[in-house]
Amino acid sequence: MKVVWDPEAQQQLNAILEAIAKENPAAAMDWLDELDALLQNAAAFPESGRMAPGRNDPSVCEIIHGDYLVAYLVNRKRIEVLTIWHGARKPPGRGLAGVVEDE
């Protein structure tokens, strides 16, 4: 299974990395490497993440990476990262509402 990113989730990731890199560029790269490892594990074991709270849909899962939550959609051939946000903030509505399964 492969990992793909929703374009808005990719923008969210870039903003997070930029914020971390302002303080410590090496930490930003380490954080990204750790996130990639978590997502590769999720791709290998797609239902290893918890079901997204408030959703009665086992195809939408979450993993936690430090202070951040990453929501992803499990499809037959891939996991799609829908959104990523800081746990102290309200979860974004976009990315989790209107999830559509692909082919």
Please provide a written account of the structure.
With 103 residues, the protein is α+β, with helices and mostly antiparallel strands. The chain has one domain (2-86): RelE-like (YaeB-like fold). It contains two helices and five strands; from the N terminus they run E-H-H-E-E-E-E. The chain has helices spanning 7-23, 25-44, and strands at 2-5, 50-51, 60-65, 68-74, 78-86. A five-stranded mixed sheet has the order 1-5-4-3-2. The longest helix has 20 residues, at 25-44. It is globular and about 40 Å long. 23% of the residues are buried.
Average of per-residue pLDDT values: 86
Secondary structure category: alpha+beta
Question: Which architecture name does CATH use?
Answer: 2-Layer Sandwich
CATH class label: Alpha Beta
N-to-C span? 14 Å
DSSP E strands, number: 5
Query: What is the domain total for the residues?
Result: 1
Work out the helix count: 2
Shape: globular
Identify low-pLDDT runs: 97-103
Sequence of strands across the biggest β-sheet = 1-5-4-3-2
CATH superfamily descriptor: RelE-like
Percent range for helical residues? 25-40%
| Percentage of residues in DSSP E strands | 25-35%
The SSE order reads EHHEEEE
Topology:
Blueprint: E1 2-5, H1 7-23, H2 25-44, E2 50-51, E3 60-65, E4 68-74, E5 78-86
Parallel strand pairs: 1-5
Antiparallel strand pairs: 2-3, 3-4, 4-5
Helix pairs in contact: 1-2
A few lines on this structure:
It is built from two helices and five strands; from the N terminus they run E-H-H-E-E-E-E. By secondary structure, it is of the alpha+beta class.
